[in-house]
Specification:
- The complex is a heterodimer.
- Chain A has five helices and six strands.
- Chain A is α+β, with helices and mostly antiparallel strands.
- In chain A, strand 2 and strand 3 (about 85-90) form a beta hairpin.
- The longest helix of chain A is centred in the first third of the chain and has 19 residues, at about 1-20.
- Chain A is elongated, with a radius of gyration of 26 Å.
- Chain B is α/β, with parallel strands linked by helices.
- Chain B has five domains: about 5-95, Ubiquitin-like (UB roll) (Roll); about 125-265, no CATH class; about 280-345 and about 505-675, Rossmann fold; about 360-495, 3-Layer(aba) Sandwich (Dimethylsulfoxide Reductase, domain 2); about 700-800, Beta Barrel (Barwin-like endoglucanases), CATH 2.40.40.20.
- Chain B contains 25 helices and 35 strands.
- In chain B, strands 16-15-26-25-24-17-18 form a seven-stranded mixed sheet. A six-stranded mixed β-barrel of chain B has the order 30-34-31-33-32-35. In chain B, strands 2-1-5-3-4 form a five-stranded mixed sheet, sandwiched between helices.
- The longest helix of chain B has 19 residues, at about 285-305.
- Classes of the chains: A alpha+beta, B alpha/beta.
- The interface between A and B is large, with 43 and 41 residues.
- The complex binds iron/sulfur cluster (SF4) (4 copies) and FE2/S2 (inorganic) cluster.
């Protein structure tokens, strides 16, 4: 009995190998050949822009709070229009584990994962990406969301001029 | 003492306690917006709903409005109450903007917390959201009215508690809003408290705007260094920069509140001129070389000139640890001239207070419970701002407030004011004690006589006086008056604001030793050749700048430990950079002898905002931060003395060597600080009564004074406080101004022994004729006019062509 098991155990895998020899291969010759990952692939992070072309990131620090390996650091600032933005924004990809938690935390859809996975470098310092390295000129997976259109605090539009708002009311009016 | 049951737990509370407070005693926090321990209940938010199952009022009730009663049974978990609270949270959110990501309150927002606790997630209301206009409230506070939930806390804080008048409620129905009649800076010196008290992001700190999230802050319990009151604070720092200061609760000292000087005066930590490297003869050197140089200079001096030619000068703003170590170092070098305060008058006052305060000490917390407060020559808003807040609470509780002072008082409450000249103040102090009134007009002596009677009749009187106008002799008289008004059954309280956060310790440590005048004499006589200055600036803080300069110029070496540049560090041969209070552990003893510890918030170093120039931080990854060389003064001294440089071990050692400070070992655990009961040695009697020299006709008696903007070195290095500091002005009586052809707001030239100074005229009717006041500002045009050095004689001329 034992002998028969040994013989079939030798031939069966060889037979499988032989069969696959005549099939279309699933592996590719990387790096000569490259593959396009699916759209929701989680590789290098990007900072996207809103439909008006303005930076989406409002420097709320939620991504940096969500990151389990603490690889995002930034500094918020305010521009002349009262818009909150990131004066600087740094992601250390030598640390990033590509978990995507930052993108889930982001309330403005600013930080998104992209399919660009070829970021390995020999020098860890070159894996530290600054804001200009992260910023792209499109909206990523969502082309339409514009946080300040819904924020309701009159930034980048007159007060009361956002979606679903009225006013501003006259606070000195005592009429019923 | 009713006993009630809340969530099946019995609790006995004092009469008049509300259900929400009783629950707090059990450790149960009933959700709330408008209730606050310091403000009481308003019943306006309806979030604190609970069900009363047994008691006079049954059903859903507001826990903050119903007093606890015997036999009451309350449940907070009743499904109907839970649903009620959920609806209130949802309703507070119907008009709320969708902007937590850009709201500075986010992360420490009571509205966020309550919304999440209530389980509210999706807005069901489909109507439009109401929006409000915003108002510019000045350089300290940003308003975003759309976030308001109409809890009225801001108005109750600003108007009721702090006594401000320029902020209030506007509008009607669903348009109720809060603000000023017209945009502008909030005038109250306690305005910043509305930031802490507002449960939402309507009112946020402008100096902290968009700087950081609350969860990223490095925070540690601290003590305010801007005056001798020692309010408890919670500073927050990030990226090596102190970003904001919040009030920390200490019911005995500041309650829940601090003043705007303490809150917004934090710019000194990151000031570009901070001393960052040890210097010897103007050359930047390493710590080892600097300490070797210190050692060498001191041993050279003792070799060449003998023992005792090195003197040591401690400070009112250095920690207790550092001052104690300085004393030990002095003893080790055989020095007999260790002085702990470079302003001799303030030194005498601190010694008097340390020697005579005893059980009559009063904290601001005690002041609130007083029924009669007599202020003599004190301006709390300048000398100890939160004291003014405590006096207001006493007034709200029905106390009588009487002020004897030549200046127009600025207390945020009603008071009786008798404008007396500084000389008359001394007379009043003396005669209130002896009860024999001489040298007054009839009205004045009746008023004073009645005042004396009321002081005796009061249940819990407190006398408050300060040194700038009274001088050391006046403070002695003040204590005599306190003693005379203290029958055994009912001691009279006393509170004397001192010159700096650690002045009391300086007074206690001086141990009857010489004062700075004696030390200057010794230097001028060539008996002292080297001076070590610990975080003090004798060039600027000694009232007669000329005398200090000529004496200090005769030194062979001047060794200075300090954090910020001063005239003294500029003249120093060796400069050792020290940390500012938030960068190290330490202790201060406040005006009433309360020892309070503060903990390190952050390490010293150039902030990332500076090293990165506002852009990405430099791509240098190192173990140590740039500019991190400053060390706590006590650590430097401990190293020189070969003592432990670690806080706990050092405190143990210090407590062992000086048992007056035995509390040092436990102090980091004491929530309200620890009173140091040791009694100091009073200053030697002085012949000179601080009497003002008779002046030339036509001249004014000029008194330098402090103002709210702050004259301490930490405030003057804080740019955020600049809006509080006016250009130099002189305050004088209407008739004096008229005599000189001056009107309110006119420009004038002030001439005194300190030279000419351009000032703006401010006149009022209440100042007695012949005297004038000039606010002192360190590093400013009025730096030479140091308060506490008595009056100067000056003349005032109008400047032609200036409005
Ligand atoms: S992908 Fe993960 S590790 Fe990378 S930044 Fe986001 S949360 Fe951090
Ligand atoms: S979570 Fe989004 S908006 Fe917030 S800081 Fe990160 S990228 Fe910017
Ligand atoms: S007040 Fe609170 S709930 Fe409202 S936006 Fe600010 S953080 Fe969010
Ligand atoms: S501004 Fe703040 S404190 Fe004032 S009512 Fe609105 S939410 Fe309450
Ligand atoms: S806390 Fe009771 S009604 Fe607001």
């Amino acid at each position: 009995m034992g002998l028969w098991r040994d013989i079939s155990g030798t031939w069966k895998p060889m037979w499988i190998t032989l069969r696959y020899l005549f099939r279309k291969p699933v592996t590719i010759e990387y790096p000569e050949q490259k593959r396009t990952p699916p759209p929701r692939y989680r590789a290098q992070l990007i900072l996207t822009r809103d439909p008006e072309g303005k930076e989406r990131c409002v420097a709320c620090y939620l991504c940096s709070a969500a990151c389990p390996v603490d690889c995002i650091s930034l500094q918020a600032a305010e521009d002349a229009d009262g818009r909150r933005y990131a004066a600087w924004f740094r992601v250390n990809f030598a640390r990033c584990i590509f978990c995507g938690l930052c993108t889930e935390a982001c309330p403005t859809l600013a930080i998104q994962t992209s399919i660009h996975y070829e970021i390995c470098k020999r020098d860890p310092l070159s894996l530290v990406f600054e804001k200009e390295d992260l910023l792209v000129d499109h909206g990523g997976k969502d082309k339409f969301y514009n946080f300040y259109q819904h924020a309701g605090i009159g930034v980048c539009k007159p007060r009361g001029g956002g979606d679903g708002e009225y006013g501003p009311v006259d606070v000195k009016d005592l009429l019923p | 003492m009713p006993t009630l049951t809340i969530d099946n737990q019995p609790v006995t509370v004092a009469e008049g306690t509300t259900i929400i407070q009783a629950a707090e005693r059990l450790g149960l926090v009933i959700p709330h917006f408008c209730y606050h321990e310091a403000l009481g209940a308003a019943g306006s938010c309806r979030l604190c709903a609970v069900r009363i199952e047994k008691g006079p009022l049954k059903g859903i009730q507001m826990a903050c409005m119903i007093p606890a009663q015997d036999g009451m049974v309350v449940t907070t978990l009743d499904p109907e109450a839970v649903e009620f609270r959920a609806h209130v949270a949802e309703w507070a959110m119907t008009d709320h903007p969708h902007d937590c990501p850009v709201c500075d309150e986010g992360g420490e927002c009571q509205l966020q917390e309550m919304t999440i606790a209530a389980g509210h997630g999706t807005r069901r209301f489909r109507g439009l959201k109401r929006t409000y206009p915003n108002q510019d409230l000045g350089p300290f506070i940003v308003q975003e009215m759309n976030r308001c939930i109409q809890c009225y806390r801001c108005v109750r804080t600003y108007r009721d508690y702090c006594g401000g008048t320029d902020y209030g409620t506007f509008g009607s129905r669903n348009r109720v809003a809060y603000g000023r009649v017209t945009a502008g800076r909030l005038a109250s010196p306690f305005s910043g408290n509305i930031i802490d008290l507002c449960p939402t992001g309507v009112l946020t700190d402008k100096t902290f705007r968009f700087k950081c999230r609350s969860w990223d802050l490095q925070e540690a319990p601290s003590v305010c260094p801007h005056c001798s009151l020692g309010c408890n604070t919670l500073p927050g720092a990030r990226y090596r920069e102190l970003l904001r200061v919040k009030a920390r609760v200490n019911r005995a000292v500041n309650g829940f509140f601090i003043c705007d000087r303490g809150r917004f005066g934090h710019g000194y930590q990151n000031h570009p001129q901070r001393l960052r490297e040890p210097h010897v003869d103007g050359e930047s050197v390493s710590w080892n070389d600097a300490l070797a140089a210190v050692h060498e200079r001191i041993s050279q001096t003792t070799e060449h000139h003998g023992h005792g030619t090195v003197a040591f000068l401690g400070s009112r703003r250095a920690t207790l640890e550092a001052n104690l170590l300085l004393g030990q170092w002095a003893a080790a070098t055989g020095c007999t001239r260790t002085v702990y305060e470079c302003h001799p008058e303030f030194d005498r006052i601190a010694r008097t207070v340390a020697a005579r305060l005893g059980d009559q000490r009063r904290s601001p917390g005690d002041i609130q419970r007083s029924d009669f407060i007599l202020l003599i020559g004190a301006e709390p808003l300048a000398e100890a701002p939160v004291l003014a807040l405590a006096i207001r609470q006493a007034k709200r509780n029905g106390a009588r407030i009487v002020i004897l002072d030549p200046r127009p008082p600025q207390l945020p409450c009603a008071f009786e004011h008798l404008p007396l000249t500084p000389e008359q103040l001394q007379l009043a102090l003396e005669q209130l004690a002896t009860k024999k009134f001489k040298g007054w007009t009839r009205d004045e002596s009746t008023t004073l006589r009645n005042l004396g009677k009321d002081l005796t009749a009061a249940q819990n009187p407190v006398i408050i006086g300060a040194g700038a106008l009274l001088g050391a002799a006046g403070i002695e008289r003040l204590f005599d008056l306190v003693d005379a008004s203290s029958p055994a059954a009912r001691p009279c309280g006393v509170l004397v604001p001192l010159a700096g956060p650690n002045s009391y310790a300086a007074g206690l440590l001086s141990n009857g030793g010489p004062d700075f005048d004696d030390l200057l004499d010794a230097i001028l006589n060539g008996m002292v050749k080297t001076l070590v200055c610990l975080e003090t600036d004798p060039f600027e803080d000694y009232p007669q700048h000329g005398r200090a300069q000529s004496a200090l110029a005769q030194l062979e070496s001047l060794i200075v430990l300090d954090a910020l540049p001063t005239q003294t560090t500029r003249h120093a041969d060796i400069v050792l950079p020290t940390t500012v209070p938030v960068e190290s552990d330490g202790c201060y003893i406040n005006h009433e002898g309360r020892l309070q510890a503060f903990a390190k918030v952050l390490d010293p170093g150039l902030s990332v905002a500076v090293t990165g120039g506002g852009d990405h931080p430099p791509r240098i990854f190192e173990q140590s931060a740039p500019g991190n060389l400053p060390r706590p003064a006590w650590a430097i001294l401990a190293e020189i003395l070969k003592l432990p440089t670690e806080t706990a071990a050092l405190r143990q050692q210090l407590a062992r060597t000086d048992n007056r400070f035995a509390a040092l070992t436990q102090i980091h655990r004491a929530a309200e600080g620890e009173i140091v009961t040791a009694i100091g040695i009073p200053p030697r009697p002085q012949d000179d009564d601080g009497a003002v020299e008779s002046s030339v006709p036509g001249s004014l008696q000029l008194w330098p004074i402090d103002t709210f903007g702050g004259a301490d070195i930490f405030s003057t290095y804080s740019v955020h406080l600049d809006p509080l500091r006016d250009e130099p002005y002189i305050l004088l009586a209407d008739e004096d101004a008229k005599q000189r052809g001056l009107t309110d707001g006119a420009g004038a030239v002030l001439t005194s022994e300190l030279g000419h100074l351009k000032v703006r005229v401010r006149c009022t009717a209440t100042i007695p004729a012949g005297i004038a006041f000039l606010p002192h500002l360190l590093r400013g045009a009025t730096a030479g006019f140091v308060p506490g050095g008595g009056a100067l004689s000056c003349t005032l001329k109008s400047v032609e062509g200036e409005a």
